[in-house]
Amino acid sequence: MQTQRLRIAIQKKGRLSKECQDLLKRCGVKFNMVGERLVVHAENMPIDLLLVRDDDIPGLIMDGVVDLGVIGENELEEVALERAARNEPNDYVKLRRLDFGGCRLSIAINKDDEYQGPQDLQGKRIATTYPQLVKRYMDQQGVKFSTCMLNGSVEVAPRAGLADAICDLVSTGATLEANGLKEAEVILRSKAVLIQCTRALSDEKQALINRLLTRMQGVIQAKE
Ligand code: PRT
Ligand code: ZN
What we know:
alpha/beta; D-Maltodextrin-Binding Protein, domain 2; 2 domains; 11 strands; binds phosphoribosyl ATP; binds zinc ion; ATP phosphoribosyltransferase; nucleotide-binding; amino-acid biosynthesis; cytoplasm
């Protein structure tokens, strides 16, 4: 369904939401976040912001329901692999990498376990929210393993006896440390990215996107 207004999906509440809103504002998009709205209309441009769970953003882009989205590469790549496995549309255009949301997706093991390389993970059970990315990495390494799918509290899985290792997002490393774990392998370095659906958009929308991109370039460079 094509709308006249450019639709941008952003995370409603979480680690990407503030910086994402700040970036749009610095690009000159005026809006007011009030209450629990799903859609917020920009006041000075034909743009609607769609406020959703980050998990929903890749699918909204790949199904062509929204025009643009801001999402962590970790989530984006996991969903793309998942959809590819189910033969669902999984295309998108990466417009630019942003300067926030930086983290790494890492495999971590008990801090006292010996570790020389991926072979040491042979036959282990790995708790994760990112089963597709773990499988891609382990297949590349030729290491057999099993998973334990958890959508939260991944870091307590080894201590709880649910898994031998975990694969989760790390930024400072404090969470791993607090749970008696150490980083063994970094399997993905991630940042927030701006993505577009592959469906052709009206000339007006495409021109607006180009204008936003130019402004974004300036805003990000000014910060560097
Ligand atoms: O509600 P919704 O589904 O929208 O949000 P969410 O809870 O799924 O996501 P959210 O807001 O936690 O994270 C959104 C995105 O921020 C992630 O997909 C990443 O792209 C990015 N990001 C950057 C991070 C982190 N850094 C991060 N440190 N996401 C999560 N973490 C967590 C990590 O899972 C672990 O629990 O922080 C902990 C580790 O942090 P350190 O500093 O202790 O290492
Ligand atoms: Zn989420």
